[in-house]
Amino acid sequence: MQKTHKNCAVGAISLLTKMNESVLAVSAAAILATLATAGTAPANEVTAMPATKPDRLIVRTWGGPWRSSYEAAAAASFTAKTGIPVEFDVTDFNEIQVKVGQAVSAKARPPVDVVLTIETMAYAAQVQGVSIPLDPHLIESLDQLSSVAIPEGATNYINVSTYSQPIVYDPAQVSLPDSISWQEIFDPKYAGKLFVTNTYSSLLYPVAKMMGLDYTTDDMTPVFARISELSGNIGAAGDEEEFIAGMEAGQISIGVTLAATAIELGGLKWIVPQEGAVVSSESFYVPAGLPDDVSYWAQIFIDETLTAENQAKIAAGIGEAPVNLQATVPDFMKGDPAFPITEADIAKYGIVVPVGIEARNNNDWQAAYTAAIQR
Predict the structure, then answer these.
(1) pLDDT single digits (tens) 220-235
(2) 167-278+360-372 classified as CATH 3.40.1280.10
(3) Do the domains 167-278+360-372 and 10-163+280-344 match in fold?
């Protein structure tokens, strides 16, 4: 299930600092009103199906199990229902964002029709005006989705799966009790054996919570100072590839990464500390500048990815939690705090950070974090 996008978006997320922050003030009621009036139809009418169909849809995704899972589930059922073939583009998510932006700016057709990316990039596309508002009339399963699917401020994208970053460890080298705090990784017994991500979110928010600080209002300087105390423990930093390489080489024995990465590597255990673990999302958006019929069918494709049946298949394939609450949860996720799905479990085990918080603070926080984890 390996994918190396989760913790390597430092440069990409810096796009967020150029956003119009007025989006952040949108209330939940206003979001629903915006969604309800998106598209060409009045709020109480269903958008009319166009008379034409595109000869194909091009969907940007990651390779490996992401491509194969979406192909076998949503693409297959979409094509069966519509007759429209689906092709996949596995261009890097940073690169495709730039290409979409360049196409929209040049008033040219974007290179893809649907983009699967991380939420921060979908949010950037929305605020920069390179994506279109999604029409809720075309999302038939809308009332089956968790609150994570359409976060406050989201009008042009929808979250389709979530992933968390718990503490992952090698049980042959590390023994942990059933309940721990994030304080555990500060223990000097892990000197030189700790892995941390190269982006701040996986540690900043849990450590802030551990310290009793509110990242929405409090100064995070003390949190970065606390994180800097990990420097003697840190043996490696990076993304999922670096975590896997470090574990395989015996360089590290404990770290912060995706539960799906631990499953892929095998032989590892993971635990969500008492303070919870950061929950992030993958999202779909439709680029601006597409022909009307393509924009319509692109949204129908997104709807197909959100059905309970396809959500279950995709969750099992990529190791991420579904956002459709009626989806059958894969056995390996059931009862695991690292895969919070219900509203109650998300509240208990997850730390869901509004993307706007990162938009306002990203550059400063990333710079402070990078300095803090220097060895």
Answers:
(1) 999 999 999 999 999 9
(2) no
(3) yes
For helices 201-210 and 221-228, what crossing angle results, to 10°? 100
- Please, what's the b/e burial string for 28-61 (b: 16 or more CB within 10 A of its CB; e: otherwise)? eeebeebbeebbeeeeeeebeeeeeebeebbbbb
- Per residue in 340-369, pLDDT tens? 999 999 999 999 988 888 888 989 999 999
List, in order, residues 6 or more apart from 120 with CB less than 8 Å away.
Answer: 9, 12, 13, 16, 355, 358, 359
d(C-alpha 334, C-alpha 312), whole Å: 12
Please give the structure tokens belonging to residue 145. 């989705």
Q: What is the pTM of this model?
A: 0.86
Place of tokens 């015996």: 250
Tokens representing 231 are 């420097």
Neighbours of 210 (CB within 10 A): 18
